[in-house]
Amino acid sequence: SLGLEGSVDIYKVDRPFPLSPLLNDELSSYEEILVLEETYPVIELQIPYREKTRGRLDGTVPSEGELKPENILKALHLLLGDFPFEKINDLKEGSPPRLCPGCPHRATFWAIKKAFPQGFFPSDIGCYTLGLEMGAVDAFLCMGAGVSLAEGFYLALKNAGQKIPPICATVGDSTFFHACIPALIDAVTKKAAFVLVILDNTTTAMTGGQPTPSNPPKNLRKVEMEEVIKGCGVEFIKVVDPFDFPEMERSLKEAYAFSQEREAPAVIISRRPCPLFEEKETQKRSFILKLLRKNCKSCMLCVLKSKCPALEKGQEGPIIHQHLCRGCGLCVFICPNQALILTEV
């Protein structure tokens, strides 16, 4: 669509390290090389032709931030100058990644923001890092750091004599078993008062649906998450379905009140299976989302608050992408004008 056929060759690197010597031999025949890769310039550093290689190291591609379509477009402009791009104005600006339609994490994040509008939200590595888009993730570092960040911020502010906002950390079920147990024990020992929400979607969704200790294959022994948390010394443990929106908000506030009164971490387990890995019979939609145009004020709160890919801003209200919608009902709950309804299939 950019009219670059015959002028630019594209090579997709399947193995970034070590880079194949055959590829470097092939690159020697090109006048200029543009390397497009996320995060650190692993491929770019292995190309020996520094004088004609463009990428993050020479500033052609931004050295920080996400690699969006508009950034790639600017890089192509720098290399090709006034090359006659075709239909360039028709390209839409790239949208940031979002949680999948029907993801239970979305409902949890919405409840967290509603319960703690002035809160601080450390998180961890997983699908739920996309809570950034909903304003429900403020900081993350590495796997297991969600709990230790919450503890560290609480203790730092307390020791400095500063006001401590509500601190609500989020980690996934797999991440919890992998790397959060020592940090949670330490938080109990150090009397760190915060709320920990474990986003239990019964799988390791981000990396392909691998089983977790609390939801293993049928021939293996199950480890109860609640028992592990109790063994860490946590006294407040509550399991909530995130699609019970009022109950989730109430439970978060209850957990926070407990943490402040007892000067201890309180744990909410937000439990609902990831819709991508549910059994096929449970993946069938039971409801269809409909827009009542007579009630819609085009405020777009459903789009702005939910950040759901199934909803898009339209001229006369939200556009519903029925092929994406899973009928979770969060947008129905968010809408202040009762303009969205779920009807049975």
> What is the CATH superfamily classification of the largest domain?
Thiamin diphosphate (ThDP)-binding fold, Pyr/PP domains
Helix content: 25-40%
Indicate the structural class. Answer: alpha/beta
CATH topology of the largest domain: Rossmann fold
Low-pLDDT sequence parts: none
Strand content: 5-15%
Order of helices and strands: HEHEHHHEHEHEHEHEHEEHE
Rg for CA atoms: 24 Å
**Order of strands in the sheet with the most strands?**
3-4-6-5
Report on this structure.
This protein is an alpha/beta fold. It folds into 3 domains: 21-90, no CATH class; 104-271, Thiamin diphosphate (ThDP)-binding fold, Pyr/PP domains (Rossmann fold, 3-Layer(aba) Sandwich), CATH 3.40.50; 285-344, Alpha-Beta Plaits (2-Layer Sandwich). Helix content is 31%, strand content 12%. The protein is built from 11 helices and 10 strands. Strands 3-4-6-5 form a 4-stranded parallel beta sheet, with helices on both faces. Helix 6 links the parallel strand 3 and strand 4. Helix 4 (104-115) crosses helix 8 and helix 5 runs parallel beside helix 6. The longest helix is centred in the last third of the chain and has 18 residues, at 245-262. The two termini are 40 Å apart. The mean pLDDT is 91.
List keywords for this structure.
3 domains; two-stranded parallel ribbon; alpha/beta; four-stranded parallel beta sheet; 345 residues; Alpha-Beta Plaits; Rossmann fold; 11 helices
